[in-house]
Design a protein that fits this description.
61 residues; mainly beta; 0% helix; 4 strands; binds zinc ion
Length: 61
């Protein structure tokens, strides 16, 4: 599965960018933790990937 490249920062409402990278042959899986850093306030956000979270084109396969 593929986490969102950017999310909304919970601290300031700015754009937080995906920090974590995985090789193509070892992709993210549900339960993995992905880190984002806000470009505005540098707040770090850690998200746990959730199997229930449908991500665009990857949904329903
Ligand atoms: Zn922020």
């Amino acid at each position: 599965m593929e986490p969102a490249k950017t999310i909304t920062c919970v601290e300031c409402g700015g754009t937080a960018h995906l920090l974590s990278q995985r090789p193509v042959d070892d992709p993210f899986e549900p339960g993995d933790t992905v880190a984002y850093t806000c470009e505005d306030c540098n707040h770090r956000l850690d998200l746990v990937l959730d199997e229930d979270e449908e991500v665009g084109e990857f949904a329903g396969q």
